[in-house]
Design goal:
Layout lengths: L30 H11 L10 E5 L7 E7 L2 E7 L12 H11 L9 E5 L2 H4 L3 E5 L20 H17 L17 H16 L2 H16 L8 E3 L8 E3 L7 E4 L6 E3 L2 H9 L26 H12 L6 H24 L15 H13 L2
Antiparallel strand pairs: 1-2, 2-3, 3-5, 4-5, 6-9, 7-8
Length: 369
């Protein structure tokens, strides 16, 4: 019997996805104008005298992220995606604010150097930050780690420990006590993501997504602590030291960072985390190959997180359900942007096919709470 299905990704054999590539068609900016601006405005401590080059980090799904090189000086430029932007989304000013301060207190936070709010330069707000070097894991283990024992398990625990350390930070001590309004945070999350769904809703799924919203709103937990909340912590938003699965060197995508209930981040992490026995219908891995890496189970992740933070994780199922529902909104947004011609990323054509499975898992989690 033959099949046209793609063979499963082998995390110990397949090629690690390229971190940088040529800029995608339709996603180029006015590089001459940007080069002139950056040479004039970047801080003097950076050597920007060398020749200018641009590549793109192609693996993200929304914000446009480019590698800017001036000779040997490598930097990262981030700007929102093209087209209509949901209120509060893709906030470059927020991301710059966080990363221009947090790097001094948390070594997983890259340093931001410059914010530009003159839309004549790149068509939107953008900011520039340092480039970190290391390994980003997207379903395929880096060659530098493949021969190491228990590499997936070690990597998973290191990620949980880094997230717990982030949640133990005191925002006021980091100069970011004004980053958000923690009172009512979870309620605003549930209401805000429903408004985003309403902007892009697929009629085929609207009734069930609305019913899930009502269920989530009716069963919201009481927050245990006010912490930083990144809002998109997952394996491929982290970078590991080359050859070392025990050390995370960076987190990425800080544009939704705020203050609130840290278990929102824990739920997001579990939303993308596989168990080895997950069927295709309930598959949570964000990339093929993750189920075969030897990662710790979701139960192990939750237990470790509770140990490292001192938080009660017995009600983590609600946060996982919210993350599943929120992810359904996100993938619908991404597909809508593609449908409207604001994205040229071919992955977005079918990404909303995941919505029914995400809704199904959210219901299952709420029923077991």
């Amino acid at each position: 019997m033959t099949t046209d299905a793609e063979p499963p990704v082998d995390p110990f054999v397949d090629e690690t996805p390229a971190e940088v590539a040529e800029v995608r068609s339709g996603e180029a900016l006015d590089w001459e104008r940007i080069e002139t601006y950056l040479r004039a405005e970047l801080p003097d401590e950076l050597d920007v005298s060398g020749s200018f080059e641009v590549l793109q980090f192609p693996n993200g799904a929304a914000n446009l992220t480019y590698m800017i090189r001036f000779g040997d000086t490598e930097l990262v430029l981030r700007r929102p995606p093209f087209g209509a932007i949901a209120p509060g989304a893709h906030d470059m000013q927020r991301e710059h604010k966080v990363l221009s301060r947090l790097w001094e207190y948390f070594d997983k936070a890259p340093r931001a150097y410059l914010l530009c709010d003159d839309h004549a330069i790149a068509g939107s707000d953008f900011f520039v930050m340092e480039r970190r070097r290391g390994e980003v894991v997207r379903g395929v283990l880096p060659e530098s780690m493949r021969a190491l024992p228990d590499v997936g398990h070690r990597m998973g625990l290191a990620l949980v420990d880094a997230i717990a350390a982030f949640h133990r930070l005191e925002p006021d001590a980091c100069g970011l006590g004004d980053l958000g309004r923690p009172d009512g945070f979870v309620e605003r999350q549930v209401g805000g993501w429903k408004k985003r769904w309403d902007l892009v809703a697929d009629p085929a799924n609207d009734a069930e997504m609305t019913a899930l919203h009502h269920r989530l709103a009716a069963s919201m937990p009481v927050s245990q602590r006010v912490s930083f909340v990144h809002n998109d912590l997952k394996l491929d938003n982290a970078m590991f030291e080359t050859g070392n699965p025990d050390r995370v060197v960076a987190f990425f995508d800080w544009d939704m960072t705020t203050l609130g209930d840290p278990l929102i981040d824990a739920g997001t992490l579990l939303n993308y985390w596989p168990n080895p026995d997950d069927t295709e219908e309930v598959r949570r891995a964000s990339h093929d190959g993750m189920t075969r890496m030897g990662l710790p189970t979701r139960a192990e992740v939750a237990e470790r997180y509770g140990e490292k933070t001192g938080l009660d994780v017995s009600g983590i199922g609600w946060y996982e359900a919210f993350a599943q529902w929120k992810t359904a909104v996100v993938v619908q947004q991404l597909h809508h942007r593609w449908k409207m011609g604001d994205s040229t990323d071919e992955r977005m054509e079918t990404i909303a096919d995941r919505v029914p499975a995400l809704m199904r898992t959210a219901w299952q989690l709420l029923e077991t709470e």
